[in-house]
Design brief:
With 469 residues, the protein is mainly beta. Helices cover 9% and strands 51% of the residues. The radius of gyration is 25 Å and the shape is globular.
């Protein structure tokens, strides 16, 4: 007992000594390196009530292959209903990160992630026959390197230099649309959803806030935020070619930082021959938020130079059967979103219950011509939902409630709805067009979900979660 008391006293004295030293160092202005382990997880119980007859959907659009169709539904013109509902528990993202500031002006970050991926059928790649970076050969969940970078803070006034695997500024960076939408745990932003760009890339970024001011006039901008990046353009995968992707984003904050308006652009060469192809993207967005609600909108357009390879047809007869022509594909989309607090805690002023909704409209190629027979379409877009057989537009809708029993725990009942409208199918390159029945021409995927989202580490402000934590 005496030994335990002595040891306890020694430990207490040592603790007080350490605290005194730290405080003395702080008073003297000495820097003390520090690190922080953090993470978050979100996923769902999903219940699919309706399946698109043709199983359309591409890019990062999930649920299109969530259940199979019976043999009666294989025909493009059938009016047969989809199969019975399918349900599952799933984790869609797990982040485990560590931040370390080793000098006053230098910090480092590393993040390991498990994120559900989708194959051509829309099913998560979880089988031993189709392994990927997110699963082992036995089909078990695993992780990959999402972010790993070092930041040189204030390399010059108001600006930081970041080198390594970093957040892209197309939607995932500070002051951008992922934070404005706030509900990444429900769905990706529209550019992310359709694989217009990735959230991670290996490269270098110069970013910061300039023109800082504390203007009494709230209509004057509080600051001008910017980010200029050069990267491989290959997301979290190793580089496979000589080309680089160039990105730029600027945004301003008005009305005491309640209103944000931003512009984004990028350029990436993809090949020299046999056709010179490249991608050029432009995006504009705006968001307004208060302590009780937020609203926002974004619109983007991406030109895919010489991505459409086709032969002209007339009444089913193909002209120039040995010579294919090329055209620029242009994908375009817009999104509007809103959320609001219904009930707050009187003690903490934190939100207890909120409501959210979003509407997207997406056209994968505004230059698509039904008189042409395409052998390739938007081939420069990885995971494009344009194929040689079909062309369709998409409308995405989601909405739900956000219940927060704790600021770091969210339980969100919601709906996930994606509809498809096909103009025509073909029998293949050089074939003739075929009209679809009304039932098949316009169809949808409908899913009811109970989404959960929780963060661990009670003091970490997790970047890009958008929920003011």
């Amino acid at each position: 007992m005496k030994k335990r008391t002595i040891l306890t006293a020694i430990a207490a004295i040592a603790f007080l000594g350490v605290n005194t030293t730290v405080k003395a160092q702080d008073k003297d202005g000495e820097f003390k390196p520090s690190g922080n382990l953090w993470g978050y997880v979100f996923g769902d119980y999903a219940y699919k009530t309706h399946n698109d007859t043709l199983q359309r959907g591409g890019g990062a659009v999930q649920y299109k292959g969530f259940n199979s169709l019976n043999s009666a539904n294989t025909s493009a013109n059938t009016n047969a209903p989809a199969l019975v509902q399918t349900n599952a528990f799933q984790i869609r993202r797990m982040y485990l990160g560590y931040d370390y500031q080793f000098a006053k002006n230098f910090s480092a970050k590393i993040v390991l992630a498990n994120e559900q991926n989708y194959d051509a059928s829309g099913l998560a790649l979880v089988t031993s026959t189709t392994p990927n970076t997110l699963t082992t050969t036995g089909g078990k969940n695993t992780v990959y390197l999402k972010y790993a970078n070092v930041k040189w803070m204030n390399i010059f006034k108001g600006s930081d230099l970041v080198i390594g695997q970093l957040e892209t500024n197309s939607f995932a960076s500070a002051g951008n649309t992922e934070q404005a939408w706030a509900y990444r745990s429900i769905e990706r932003t529209i550019m992310d959803l359709h694989n217009t760009d990735a959230s991670s890339d290996l490269g270098i970024s110069l970013q910061g806030k300039v023109m800082l001011q504390h203007a009494e006039d709230s209509l004057k901008p509080m600051f001008l935020g910017y980010s200029v990046q050069v990267g491989n353009g290959n997301s979290a995968s190793p580089e496979t070619d000589i080309f680089k992707k160039y990105r730029g984003n600027v945004y301003v904050s008005f009305l005491k930082q309640s209103l944000t308006i931003g512009l984004y652009g990028d350029y990436a060469q993809t090949q020299f021959s046999p056709y010179h192809t490249s991608n050029t993207t432009f995006k504009a967005y705006a968001a307004y938020k208060t302590s009780w609600f937020r609203v926002g909108a974004e619109v983007f357009q991406q030109k895919n130079q010489n991505s459409d390879i086709y032969k002209v047809s007339s009444n089913g007869i193909v002209a120039g059967t040995t010579i294919a022509d090329t055209a620029n594909g242009v994908q375009m989309g817009w999104s509007v979103f809103a959320s609001g607090t219904i009930l707050k805690s009187k003690k903490t002023n934190q939100s207890l219950l909120s409501i959210f909704a979003r509407y997207d409209s997406y056209n994968p190629d505004t230059k698509w011509n039904t008189n042409n027979v395409y052998s390739k379409a938007s081939s420069a877009i990885t995971g494009s939902n344009i194929t040689t057989a079909t062309f369709y537009k998409q409308t995405f809708i989601t909405g739900g409630l956000d219940f927060c029993p704790n600021p770091r725990v969210h339980i969100m009942p919601n709906i996930w709805f994606n509809s498809y409208k096909t103009n025509m199918t073909t029998t293949g390159a050089g074939g003739t067009g075929t009209d679809l029945s009304a039932r098949v021409k316009t169809d949808n995927d409908m899913v009811y979900r109970l989404t959960f989202y929780f963060l661990f580490n009670g003091t970490k402000k997790v970047a890009n979660n958008g929920m003011n934590l």
